[in-house]
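Quarterly update from the structural biology core.
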Amino acid sequence: WRTDFSRRTVPLREIRSGGVPREGIPAVDRPEFESAEQAAGWLAGRDLVLVVEHEGTARAYPFRILVWHEIVNDQLAGLPLAVTFCPLCNTSVVFDRRVGARTLDFGVTGRLRHSDLVMFDRQSETWWQQATGEGIVGAMAGTKLRRVPARILTWETAREQLPSIRVLSRPRGSRLDYTRNPFAGYDDPGRHPLRRLFARSGGPALPPLERVVAVDLGSGWAASARALRQSRVANATVEGTPIVVFWRDAAQSGSRTRGTGADLGQTAAYDRRVAGRVLTFRARGNTFEDRETGSRWDLAGRAITGPLRGRRLRGVPHDNPFWFAWVAFRPATRLWIP
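Predicted structure, tokenized:
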């Protein structure tokens, strides 16, 4: 390592071996993409994908691939992206790879902190916490990557809402079996094969492996997946920003690759201000309605009927992590109660 270990923001004792060597989990450095029609040949409708949009261009990153590679170094409409996923924490986070005038590319250190992936950039070999995007050891310790909003959707929904979407292809020459998941069963209730890695349980509020929908605007805010499954909408204010979280059924567990998992829902989070007005949302069938104008909105944050038809909500960074992983890094998290 060329890492400057004298510069760090966390104790080195908190960083543990994850059982693989440096870059033992290979990042995707030269991603290739295919059409929705091509992807339909190997993706099932209920498979989960991480969707990123920028400057009118949309891409889908299947969790079937992310679970094996954990990092994709990409560029979308001129924006350098690091698309990341930690299977142990269920944290799927997209970052802008630029820091000042430098564009970084990332790999896997083979180490964990609080069970979460520790990445490194190949330029300075600074170590970065995947769950937060913070440099924790090395020349850029204390620097934080900018998060890019993304949505967690089923392949069926992504294709329906974005017909021209491009999909990350399975890497050429790879011998990995993308129909199999190396973490299958990890999230089964009562069966925690990697419990010994949990540095913190997250306290008594929720079980450690309970999934939450969490919004990252500088402080912790989260709603349990069970609560959102009932309400389907959460209106809240986080760090002075009025936000809404939309929930829609028909998603499967991120730790499985077939449609046998529990229905965990598809999620999106938005700033609920439109033209200077704060909207309040409620569920209406498979869509969402704002009380102020009666306009109907879809999961993509687009007004599809009503006075605001054609308007679009601005996405805010959010994720669907396990509870223990979220509060390990944000212990002051406020838990939303419907």
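The longest strand covers residues 79-86.
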